[in-house]
Structures are given as structure tokens and as C-alpha cells.
Specification:
Elements lengths: L2 H15 L16 H4 L8 E6 L12 H8 L20 H18 E11 L2 E3 L2 E3 L1 H10 L3 E10 L20 E9 L2
Length: about 180
């Protein structure tokens, strides 16, 4: 939805992926609402999908960590103000259903038995911990995506904070999950 993230994806492909693929030009980054764009792709035309959907509305948080990590570095505190933006959904169940439906729709364009890698992280909302990676993998099974593995992406650059100390235990989250899903259609 946001042209800024298309530009960021293009930059990362050119800087970080470079020679990993035969040609960067073979990679397609689409701008628009995935709910519509996915149906513009031909059936069984995609070899591999990689994506990192929003982690619900966590960018909307206003706390000391946001001040230190996002605002101080001039990073976004919202993906967009677009009402179609998944990061603006307020209810977790609705968010999960929307993400699963969009990623599930990838199965139409993704060739049979090919793979999708989804980079996600678990998160807290107030006192509730959401196992987003597990919730999403379970939801995607209904769309004929079988979980074939999970990789852990450790983010050692993140700072450790004494959340809740000395009154409660609140863990720091310094990793993301890469869900490896196979299109079982």
C-alpha cells in the first residue's frame, strides 16, 4: 500500500540479495492492496513467496521503547493511515483472519508444492502475549498451506530492557520466526 516500502524492498534486494538470484530483475515487488493484486497474477505462476506482514498494530504503541528505538531513529510509528492497512486493525482476531486470508490467497498464484516464507514475530499487547507465528501457521492450514519448518531469526542488535522489574517478569523479544509453508494444493 505504501510506496515507501516498495522502495525499501527494491533497495534491500539490490544491496542485500545482489547475486543470490540469477537476476534481480526477475523479482517482482507490487504496489497496492494485496487483496486485489493477488488476483492479477496468473494461476500457478509463482515459484516462491516471501513476505513479512505487519505485526498487528504494534507500531501504534506509545511507550519508552518506541521513544528510544523508533522515534529517536526517525522510524515509522505507523505503516500508513490507509484504512486497508493491516497494521491499523484494532482487534487481533480480525487482524489474524485478514492476514491469513491474504496469505492464503497466495496459494492461487503459487505453483503446487512450492513454498512461501513468512517472517513474523510474536508480541505483547498490554499484558497479553500473542504467539502470532503459531496462530498464523494454524490459520494458514485452512488454506492448504502445510507448515514444513520454522527458522529463528535472531536480532542481536536489539537492546535488553528490564521490563516489569522488580514487580513482574516481562520477556524481551529478540527474534522473529520464518515460517516455511508449502502449498499443498
Amino acid at each position: 500500500l505504501n510506496p515507501k516500502y516498495v522502495q525499501l524492498a527494491e533497495q534491500r534486494l539490490s544491496e542485500e540479495v545482489r547475486d543470490l538470484f540469477a537476476s534481480i530483475d526477475q523479482q517482482r515487488i507490487l504496489l497496492g492492496d494485496a487483496r486485489e493484486l493477488l488476483f492479477e497474477l496468473d494461476v500457478d505462476s509463482v515459484d516462491f513467496v516471501v513476505t513479512s506482514p505487519p505485526y498487528w498494530n504494534i507500531l501504534h504503541k506509545e511507550d519508552h521503547k518506541v521513544e528510544q528505538e523508533r522515534k529517536a531513529q526517525d522510524l515509522d510509528t505507523r505503516y500508513s493511515d490507509d484504512e486497508r492497512d493491516l497494521g491499523n486493525i484494532s482487534d487481533y482476531s480480525t487482524f489474524l483472519s485478514e492476514v491469513a486470508a491474504i496469505l492464503g490467497s497466495c496459494g492461487r498464484a503459487l505453483k503446487p508444492k512450492k513454498y512461501m516464507a513468512v517472517v513474523v514475530g510474536d508480541f505483547r499487547n498490554k499484558s497479553k502475549f500473542h504467539m502470532f507465528h503459531a496462530d498464523l501457521a494454524t490459520a494458514l492450514a485452512e488454506f492448504s498451506f502445510g507448515l514444513r519448518g520454522i527458522k529463528i531469526l535472531y536480532q542481536r542488535h536489539k537492546r535488553v530492557f528490564p521490563y516489569g522489574y522488580p514487580f513482574a517478569y516481562v520477556s524481551n523479544i529478540h527474534h522473529q520466526y520464518i515460517l516455511i509453508l508449502q502449498n499443498t494444493k
